[in-house]
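Dissemination and training. As part of the outreach component of the grant, students in the summer workshop were shown how a complex can be specified as a set of sequence lines and then modelled as a single object. The example used during the hands-on session is reproduced here so that future cohorts can follow it. Participants entered these lines:
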Amino acid sequence: SQTIHQWPATLVQPVGSPLSLECTVEGTSNPNLYWYRQAAGRGLQLLFYSVGIGQISSEVPQNLSASRPQDRQFILSSKKLLLSDSGFYLCAWSLRGPDTQYFGPGTRLTVL
Amino acid sequence: SQQGEEDPQALSIQEGENATMNCSYKTSINNLQWYRQNSGRGLVHLILIRSNEREKHSGRLRVTLDTSKKSSSLLITASRAADTASYFCATDRSGGGADGLTFGKGTHLIIQP
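and obtained this result:
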């Protein structure tokens, strides 16, 4: 069966520090991968998606970036965090673009 | 931009009652999905309804889709305390590409024991 992992589960970082969040998927090949951010009490905002290794599409301008170095690995990064980067970051995968997405447990990021 | 908008934002009912949540969207879609999120957790997929379907059932869940009104409803029958969660509708983009889903802000459902 397929599983999706995210780490770390929680993270507290100072403003201006770098960020690296990792997401890995097991049990499937060539998935579509997604990063979403959820602000407190809000819905999910799509940040990045990827249809293959090295292929990244960005949805919103921001100081975050994403990379997909391996088929089942998706990384969210920042060189310098802002206070507004605080939130709940969710990684998801799907087999086909508009179909069911399967979410990881999320990473709660607090920038102080 | 916000595609799905759930209504109501919050709903509190007694255990055993039925809970109905609504979702409206703005653009053409290929499908609409409903997800559940327990506090501080990831989202769990509940049900997907395609644009050529009008109603779909899964256990205690019933979803309807009215593409002419660009709206959907999620009905949870015989609610249980474990149904307490936030519920989100999500739509794809009508191009059908891989570019993610657009989520509403969710309905926070509380089931009172």
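The first strand of chain B starts at residue 5 and ends at 7. Students were then asked to discuss how this feature might be tested experimentally.
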